Amino acid sequence: MDSPTTVVNVNRLPPLSSCLQVRAKLQEAAETMASGKCQELRAVAVWNNYGTFSREDVSTMISAHEVRRIRGMVKEEEKWFSELENLLLDYDLVDKIEEVRNFRDLIWSNDENDVVLNYGEKAGIRVHDLCSVVCNRWLTDDLRSFLFQSMNVETTAHYFQVMSEPLMLSQSVRQRLFDILERKLIAGNLEYIHFALNVKRCEKTGIVTVSRSGNHWTYFAFSVRLNEMYYGDSLGWATPTNLFSLFKPIFELFQSKRSKTAVSK
Predict the structure, then answer these.
(1) By CB neighbour count within 10 A (0-12 exposed, 13-18 middle, 19+ buried), where does 97 fall?
(2) CA 208, CA 215: separation in Å to the nearest integer?
(3) Is residue 204 part of a domain?
(4) What is the Cβ-side half-sphere exposure of residue 86, based on CA atoms within 13 angstroms?
(5) What's the sign of the alpha-carbon dihedral 116, 153, 230, 263?
(6) Is 101 among the domain residues?
(7) How many CB atoms are located within 10 Å of the residue 104 CB?
(8) What pTM did the predictor assign?
(9) Which candidate, 224, 220, 221, 222, places its Cα nearest to that of 255?
């Protein structure tokens, strides 16, 4: 058997995806050996053009990829924050620079899985989600949900919701939303519903749909009376073809409540 290669002697790191696949296979081999009569043996991977590595060695290379990723992110963020400060100076908004620096220090001085902001007893947001604000990155569902939760506490006339994957796929999650909306309708203060929608556009047909695999956020708002509807898209794409079928159950809820109210009067 080839002797394991020391990770520090590797001239170049294998791709991260390959490292993850090799580590998974080594784990499977180790479990098979442990359940048989090969408990004293050690599973290694003979990797063409790289060397011979144990599972621990491959894990070290995966960690090296993570360090490289973080270094790249920090370098990108340093440039982004510097450009933002210069922009604030150009617009004579010097008083905002301190706020920007405080935000930068917040995300740089904590682990990306740390919860650093709380709103109420249940709402919290991680550094990972806050990092999506900078460098024109993809805003996470959790960040949008956190912002919407805080807005929902501040108003009773409006309700804000992210059309997340669980909401699209789970009947129980949808029912919880319906229960919330029904209680607000009974209270009589609700006037408008606001949704953040994740959409995608087919490159061949140009058809746009609300999708859990989308890559672009849009906005949909409507009144509880259903006499006002607003759809906004910063890219100017067409209205999603499945928009109204997706919201049909919510529309029916409002129509039902309005009919009952009319009858009771």
Answers:
(1) middle
(2) 11
(3) yes
(4) 6
(5) positive
(6) no
(7) 17
(8) 0.67
(9) 224
Tokens 């759809």 correspond to: 231
Does residue 65 sit in helix, strand or coil?
A: helix
Among 67, 82, 98, the domain boundary falls at 67
16 in any annotated domain: yes
Q: Determine the structural domain holding residue 31 and report its residue range.
A: 7-67
Chain centroid to CA 168: 15
What is the tally of structural domains in the chain?
A: 2
Domain containing 220 — which CATH number?
Answer: 3.30.310
Q: Are residues 159 and 61 in the same domain?
A: no
pLDDT tens for the chain, residues 1 to 265: 445 555 555 667 888 898 899 888 888 888 887 776 665 667 788 887 788 888 888 898 899 898 888 889 889 999 999 999 999 999 999 999 999 999 999 999 998 889 887 765 555 788 989 998 899 888 887 888 888 988 998 899 999 999 877 777 788 888 889 899 989 888 888 999 999 999 999 999 999 999 988 889 999 999 999 999 999 999 999 999 999 999 998 898 888 866 655 445 5
Task: List C-alpha distances in Å: 62 to 13, 67, 179, 250.
Answer: 9, 9, 45, 46
